[in-house]
Write a structure and sequence with these properties.
The chain is α+β, with helices and mostly antiparallel strands. It is built from 15 helices and nine strands. The N and C termini lie close together (8 Å).
């Protein structure tokens, strides 16, 4: 009988310390069981391999750094027969990359993301990890959830390019929801269905200026969450109003000074309480961030001013926590960078049907799993699982 994924998350890594909260998770189906429940688009006649084991072994290959369909099939063919048997694929598989590609292209992308993202969301829960700072009495602690889109450049065809919108936790880079943008559309209509299946009570939704929309703000508030939106030129009236607030008289609420990546960055944050008055639903605080960045190599200094609005009332969180939420939004950009650099996503030429989306979801799933057990360097994690695939089976719940 497969072991619980919770039991294995903090196992087999002496050099990786899993979070204490991992031991407090409820008992959930194993990931292998979740993958086996994804609807199979194939006819019953002629099926040579079960869908669940194929997806499990494909994920195991991605955990080991496979970046294309060809490499996934090579990984699967090269695995020890005992390992394949434990995953549910006995014998010697004769699996071509084209065959796997046709299968992935026919999968229901929404069903796959609902199953896998729901599994990860069940592991981490909807509340942030415990902190030493207690929230104000009687209040739910807040977690950050970043919403942003990504174009899969390698999927470009004459007609379209696959464009995905995802919701990612600030603290773990776990993707808890994902939707594909319809052809000849953009991210704005996909925002509501993306969040519709999530419990966002006690969650702050962060997004860039594209999603600073009245309907999005109302949806978030009506479903029990809060928002923190960047404001740019697509909301000209709101931006003009923010610029005219008395920032010179406002006190400095937070300042950070960081050096890294060949540059020094100083960020200053000021807050104005504006309720009532801003032409944006439920906005009660306006934020100004001045970012001064100096490149050590060139000596060039740039100063950028950013404006934001939030539904969080004064005193709900500390100024430092508010600044951390603003910075935390870029965790989703870091996730996209990992997919592009470590997994070479933009170089992947999978284009047919839903296969590009499924491949992106497998990368999200692999990154989420290794983050859960404490890996901070994803490239090092792929090296480990390439050499120790049995450890990967533990994450899927296929070993004891």
């Amino acid at each position: 009988m497969p072991s619980s994924p919770i039991d294995v998350l903090s196992r087999h890594f002496e050099h990786v310390s899993a979070a204490d909260s991992l031991s407090d998770f409820p008992d959930l189906p194993t990931l292998a069981e979740v993958l086996d429940m994804v609807p199979d688009p194939r006819s019953r006649r002629g099926r040579r391999y079960r869908l669940g084991p194929l997806l499990a072994l494909s994920l195991l290959a991605v955990l080991g750094g496979a970046t294309s369909l060809v490499k996934i099939t090579r990984f699967i063919a090269g695995y020890d027969p005992e390992l394949r048997a434990r995953a549910g694929l006995p014998g010697t598989p004769r699996l071509a990359a084209s065959t796997l590609g046709r299968l992935l292209a026919r999968l229901d992308g929404d069903a796959f993301d609902t199953a896998t993202c729901g599994h990860l969301a069940g592991l981490v829960g909807c509340a942030p990890p415990a902190t030493t700072n207690s929230p104000p009495s009687g209040r739910i602690p807040l977690a950050g959830l970043a919403v942003d889109g990504k174009v899969l450049r390698g999927s470009r065809t004459a007609e379209t390019t696959v464009h995905l919108l995802a919701a990612t936790r600030h603290d773990t880079q776990i993707v808890v929801a994902q939707r594909q943008i319809e052809a000849k559309s953009n991210e704005i209509p996909a925002f509501t269905p993306l969040l519709s299946g999530l419990d966002i009570t006690g969650v702050v939704i962060t997004a860039d200026a594209l999603h600073t929309q009245h309907t999005h703000a109302r949806q978030i508030i009506e479903t029990g969450g809060h928002y923190l939106f960047i404001v740019k030129g697509n909301q000209p009236t709101l931006l003009s109003r923010l610029k005219t607030l008395p920032w010179r008289e406002a006190v400095l609420n937070n300042r950070t000074d960081e050096t890294g990546h060949g540059r020094r960055e100083i960020r200053r944050m000021k807050i104005c309480t504006v309720r009532p008055g801003l032409p944006f639903p439920h906005a009660v605080q306006a934020i100004q961030i001045k970012r001064r960045r100096t490149d050590h190599k060139t000596g060039k200094t740039t100063i950028v001013t950013i404006y934001a609005v939030t539904s969080l009332p004064p005193g709900r969180i500390t100024h430092a926590q508010l600044a951390a939420l603003i910075r935390g939004h870029w965790s989703i950009e870091a996730l996209h960078h990992i997919r592009d650099v470590t997994y070479r996503e933009d170089a992947c030429r999978v284009r047919t049907g839903t296969a590009p989306r499924i491949m992106a979801s497998l990368r999200n799933l692999a990154i989420g799993l290794v983050r859960l057990i404490g890996w901070t360097n994803i490239a090092a994690a792929t090296d480990h699982y390439r050499s120790h695939p049995m450890d990967g089976l533990q994450l899927l719940g296929l070993t004891t």
